[in-house]
Each structure stands twice: as C-alpha cells, then as structure tokens.
Fold these 3 entries.
Entry 1:
Amino acid sequence: MITPCPARKQVASMSPDNEWPDTARVHARSSRAKPSGGVGRSPMCVLIVCRDIDPDYPVILAANREEDPSRPTSPPGLHAVADRCALYPQDKRHGGTWIGINDSGIAVALTNVAGAPVPEAAHSRGLAVLQALAAGSVDEALDNVRGFMAREVVRPLQLVVADGARLAYFRRAGDDEACFDIEDLAVVLTNRHPPKTVEIGGLSGWVAVQAEQGSDVEVRLDHLVVTLATAHGIDMKTGERFPVCVEEGTQRTVSSTLLAVPRAGGDLRLRYCAGSPRTERFRDYSGLGARL
C-alpha cells in the first residue's frame, strides 16, 4: 500500500521561482524542423544515465516518458514503500512509477522492452520499481525485483539501480535476463535499445569534458533539459536517427524527469516537467528530498 510519508521538514513551495521556463523552450522552438537524413520510427522512453561527471553527484538520470496522454499521473511526491520513504512521480492507474529515489539514496529508473511478449493479465512494470525502492542497497533492490518477477507475472522491463557509488542494469523479458554493473560515463536506453546499442548526438563528447569543468550540477541539468527536448538518438547498428522527444502519435512524450543522485549526506536534485519538454516548464522538486 502506498501512503504519503509524514512531514519531517518544511519543504520549499512550488513557486514560479522554482521553474526553468526558457532554456528548453527557446532551444525547442529553434529546433523543431526535422534534420535531413533518415529519421526512423521513434523508440520510446529514452533514459540517459551519466556517471561521474559531477564531483558531488556521481549519477545523473534524465528520462522522457512516452505514454497515452490520457493516462493519469501525478507529479513527484513522498510515498511510503514498505518501511522506507521514497520520492517519485506516480502512475495513478496502477500505483507504480518509472523513476524515483528513496531515503537510503537508492535511485531507480525504468523503460519498457519493445517487441517482447506480454503475458495475459501481467502486472504493471512500474510496480517492480517500488520493489526496488523498498531496498537499502543496490544488491537488495535487484534481489527484490527478481523476487517480485518470480512470484508475479510482470510486463517486460529494463531498469537501472544506483546509489552514490554503484550503478547496475537489469533486464527481464520472458525467460531472458541480463544484469551487470555500468562503468561507462554515459549510457542511453530506449524501449528498443539496451546499453551500448544507441547513442545521442553530442552526448559522449559533452560528458567526456565534464570531469574537468568543476562542480556546477545545475548547469549540467540545464544542458540535459535541452537534450531531452531537442536531441536525436542514433541506432548504432542501423544508423537510423529518431527524436528523443516524441510529439506526435497516440504515445508521445508526456513528462520529463531529471534526477541527480548525491553522494552520502548530499542534497538530491529533482526537476520534473509535466508534459513535453519542448513546450512545458520544468519545476524543482528538490526540496522534497529534505524529507526523505
């Protein structure tokens, strides 16, 4: 059962001062034209994972969520998960989530797996994220997800689990399972791409120089806002290009999330956009982290 956590500290209100109105929108307006060359059918749910590019935030997650716009969701909030408190946006249809962090500093982010058979009456994959958020370590989170998927029929998924020191990848589709630690500075996933099969134009060059740029996580998050709004992915096998932000079709970008996972004792950073990052504003939910 998911219930709100009790208040622990006062949280900054969500005022206009907590919004980033211009960066993504200006770049988005200037980048709406499709580039020349083949732009393939869009993969969905792009997840960017950056490692060790900021001295205070060893893992930064940037995610676009593609979904039916009529599917109800709520913005990031505090929830009780087993005996832990977690911060995440919520799928109001099934109660799960696609990205979040708990009071032990365990962060989880999820995509679906395109083309994999979906068993009849399978549970929402977002419930597996809650299992991971009930954990106190990366290993426990992975064990929780495996146990849940052994007990229940769950839709195919891939996810990453991180703390301030480690980043792990897990995928389960039918009887196929993969699990390994990620050491790369940047990894991109989509519902059609596991790690090392897709890249985002300009991302690898950007992350390669970040370790030399000092500590300014907000500038790095600003850059990733623009990436989520305007960048294109590239299939490393076929060379096909696709927009990271999907603006057309029955399944399109309905939200974007940026989550910077701090080292132990640090303050997390969380920005959330309830809509397309090309046109809607990101709001700062970092203050809720003080109550974890």
Entry 2:
Amino acid sequence: MSAKDYGKKPPLFVYKMTLLSQLATGLLPVSVWEPLWRRLLEHKVLDEYFEGKRGLEDLLANEGWFQDNAAYRQAFASIAFEAMRAKSTLTQGGQGLCDLIEDALDGASLIVQLHERVFQGEISAAPFWMLREMFLLGIWDNPAFANYAAVPSRQARANACRLALIASQYAYSFESLCESAQALARHFPASEGGDYAMSYVHEGLDGPSLQLPFREQG
C-alpha cells in the first residue's frame, strides 16, 4: 500500500487502512496478523468486498489458506465487525469524507474526524496509528498534522510514563489519548523516526542493571 494506491481510489485505501489500524493496535502479535494481512491483499479479498462484488463469508468460504489456518481465522475475527461497519461508512459518501479529512486544518481537527467519522467514536489508539502512517506516507502531508502523528498505545503510554514524559499511563477517554499522543509526538517527531520505539523501550528498561520506573527512584 502506497501513496500511489491512494490516488487510484481514496475511499478503498482509507478502508484498508482502517482495518490495518485495528490489527496494528490490537492485542494480537504482529507475527499472527501480518501474514493474514498480506494474504488478504494478495487475494484482493478486501477490494472485492468493498466494491460489493461478494460477501465476506462467500469470499473466504473456499479459500483453503484461510479455512485451514486457525491463526488466520482468529486474527480476522478481530476485525470482521469493523470490516462491515467501515464498508458502510466509506461506501456512502466516502470520497466526500476523504476530502473532508484531507482538508482538516490541523492535527486536532483531523484526529477528531477520524475518531468520530471513521472509527465511530471508539476509544482506541487506532485513529492515531492511521494518522501517523498516512502522514509518513505523505498522503496526509499537512505539517500541522505532525503534533498528533504518534500512537498512544497501552505499552507506549506505560513506557512514556516511566520515562516521565507523561503524567499517567492510564487513558480513560479520547481526550486523554490525545494528550498522550501530543506528548509522544513532541518528544519523538514523525519526521525524525517517530515514536515506534516507545512500544519496546521496556525491554531495555527492565534489564538487570536498570530497574525502573524512574519516577519511583525520586
């Protein structure tokens, strides 16, 4: 998936990114969902479903690579409802929604559009992941989007809190996720490599010579 693909059919591209965002910020490890994602793209399952040619059940019923792999079925189950809901959203006025998103004045208004219109108010890190990746792809390229181009995942928030970058690792609302994303983007600008490492920092922090959190060491 590239900026070139977006230009061909923006609503379909945003649809795929919506599902990829859910997988990337979900509970399943990359080793489980990434092979499934590659297969879905290879067999154009999402393209055909989005374009209304066939239903999901029909598309996957006779696909041995899917039916014979329990891990694939488990991973797909985590986005099946989203696949149906997002299709409804993006096939009804999808181009207008894409234009509205592209024309957002800043990161705050863009993330609100994603949260409310694309992800239907779901409180998760998925909209932020989508914003960051679309920003890095150069598709949503307004420099004003950079202050939200970071992903406040559970692990990233926990690590950021241990490093005293944010006050609390907990996020009970969309607003608190926004605050965490802004802090991460401020310390780890997407243009300089981004916040990817924040989801793995604990692996180094918990080494035998570095027992944290920093806050508790005073």
Entry 3:
Amino acid sequence: MLALRKQLSRHFYHIMLFSILATLLTWILGFLLFTIINQNKTLNPANYYESQIPEMVDKVNAQDDILNPDNQAMLDKIIPLEGLDYQIVNAEGQIQYGSMSERYLTSREDVFTQLNKNIYDNNRIVVYYPIFDSGQNFLGAAGFRYQLSVISANAESRMLLFSLFIFAIITPFVYIFLCTFIIGRRWAKRMKEPFNEIIAGAGKIEKQDLNFTMHNQSNIKELHQLVAAFDKMKTALKEALEKQWGMEEERREMVAAVAHDLKTPLTIIQGHAEGILESNHELPKRITQYLQTILLNCQRSIRLIQELNDVSSYENTEFYLETEPVNPEVLIQNKMNEFRQLCHAQNIELRASIHNPEGNQDLFYLDPFRINQMLDNILINSLRYTKERGTITWETYISEKELKFIIADSGPGFSKENQVKLFKKFFREDKARNSADGHSGLGLFIAKAIAEQHHGKISANNHPEGGAVFTVTICNMKYK
C-alpha cells in the first residue's frame, strides 16, 4: 500500500517509460517499412544536389556566349530543377536569366566578394561561381540555390519522407497522450471505487440504514484510511442512533401506556359528572360549579391524551394513511359549515371560498379523517387567537393533483423569534399569541405530520396587514 504522492510519481514514470519504448519501436518499424517500400530505389543523401554543383558549373563554362538568354532552354535541361534553382548574372550582378528571380548580388563589388561563399536565404543556401569565356576572361557568375535535407534531395519520395518526418515528430506526443489516458483511466477507476462506496454509504445513512459494512480495500494509503475512518464513524453513529431510537421507543411506549391508563378513569369521571349534571335533582350552585369544572378539565385531559396518542401514531414508522376517493368540494364545504357555526358563536366572521379554476370534478384520494383533523387543528388555532368581531379568511384551491389551503386570521400573528418553532412538539408561544386555555402545543405538530404524510407541506407566516397566515398543500394520493 503506497501513499498517494508515491503512486502519482510511479504512474508518471510508467507513462514516460512506456511512451519512450513505444516511440522507439514505432520509429524502428517505420524505418523498416520505408526501407521495404523503397527497396528498389536509392535514397539520396541530404547533400545530393550540392555535390552536383561542380559538374553543373563545368557545363555552364563549356557553353559559348553563356550570358545570352537564349541559352536558358539548354540549361533548364542540363540542371536538375527539381532540387536546384539557378541564376546567370553578368559582371555587374545584373540577372540575365534563370529559375531564380530574387537578386542576391547588387553590384560588381558584390559579385567578387560573394563568389564561392554561402548566402543563406531562410533554410536555403545560395552559392555563386565565376563564369569565364574560352580566353579565361571573367564574364559573370552562375548562382545555385538548394536545400540540405533528405526530403528535398529525394523529389520522388518527398511526400512519403515528409509524412514520415511529421509522424516521427508527433509519435512521442501521441504515445504520451495514450499512455496518460489509459493509465489515468485505470487509476481514476481505482480512485473512484472507494468514493462511490462512501457516497453509497452516505445515502444509506440518510435513509437511516446502518446495517452495512465498507468492503473496499484501496491500495492507496490515504483512501484506505478515509474508508476506514468512514466505517468507524458509521459504527459510532449506529451505536448512538440505536441508543437514541431505543430511548425514543421507550418514551413512546411509556406515553402510550400512560395515556391508555389515564383515559379510562378520566372517561369514568367525565361520565359520572355528566350524569349528575343531567339528573333532575336540584343541586346547590356551588356543587354545580365544581361539577362543571371537573367536566371541563376531564374533557381537556381526554383531548390531550388523544393528541398524545396521535403523536405516537405519526412517529411510528409503520403508520399508514387510510386513503379513499373523496369529493373535495363536499369535504371542504362540510368543514366550512361546521366552523362557520363555531365562529358565529364567538362573534367572529368566517370568509370561506372554494376556487376550482380547472372545473375539476374528479375524486381526490386522501385520508378524510386525517385531513379533517389537520383542518381542525389549524382553524382552532386561528379561532383561539382571533378576538371578538375579528375575521378568519379561508381560501381553498382545487386542482387535479393537489389541494391548497390558505387560512388567515386577524389575530396578533407570530413573534419573529418563535416563527421557526411553531411546528415543534409541545411548543406554545407565550408572547404574541399567548394562550389562556392551556392547549398542549401538539396541534400544529400533528397538522404538519398529516400534510407530510400526504406528500405536502405546511408553512406559517405573518400577514403584512397583521395576523397569521397558514399555507397548506396536500397531494392527490392517486398519483403517489
């Protein structure tokens, strides 16, 4: 098992070694292939045309009246123009004729000083040789231009040699790229495996599935340590969560047991109190007040016990909705009529409306009991904090796939510091929306749980003009 830095160095050396070996092998094979293709041909050396210049000079000096342009056709046949350019100049450096149009000698002095010397024109060489007549009188000079390269010296194989030259240059870069790609891809795959396992493990942890083991044994030291550390963290988290889950389960069981044990005697007390109050016997006013107090607190305690049972149900992972097809307009209209009476009894105006812009008449799949419970909790909350002669506005929007409720009241609204805590268990706001009836603080928690069970959401905000606004969205369970 090597460290990441050493592995990177080793891969770099492998890339360079394989690239060099592959390049040398390719060059050897390319040379052999070229030799086979040109086995019946002789490859001219780079100075092939340079070596022919003395012979060309002798042939030029052998001609009569060589400065006469009429001799150009004859020289064009003698001189191999595929590799040599030539130029005939007089003693003043003036061009008489030839295949070179560039003027390299501009004066008589240039002619004498540049004879038998190399003049460099980019990658070409120009040389001027003296011309004499039969009486050895100086007439001028013959210039020749050529290139010292194997490619220019082999006109027939020029394209093949040029391609081979380009191929020889790019070969090492091609092999470096290929080796880097192949080795890098293999290394990236090995690097990816532990990260993929960590990502998969994180996904399982997110789903509260901690019954897995990290199996990847990377040969990279740092990655091996990372996987091992993640596995240790998962094990520690599993132990902590199992302990917490156990405590939560014990708490839920205790709450359910206490609620069950309290509900029966409270129901009996409530029944007896109601029986005495409903009897025809005349009771002292003081006794009647005591009985009414007992009855009121029994009802409140039974309601709290029922809410605790509901909370335990929603926290149970095996809890399921009992969905059924329902006409949403009928369900909502019935609830509106029910709360209109409650609002009227407290001298509060309820402004309720149903909007169905699509004219959807399809049945909506939901749990009607739980939706009624959710609406009860929200509307009772608004009713609790709305003063006499106040207003509660309830707007419902119906579409094929969701129901949206917007419920606003004219109460004091929420304090900013407590707005994020509204849907927590047992939370009661004691400032802006102070309660005098001793409610449990479970209503909005239960409403949020019901909305989320229907794949929806609930939010609470303050209206700009004052008061609280609840926005609830629930989905048609037919599509879930």
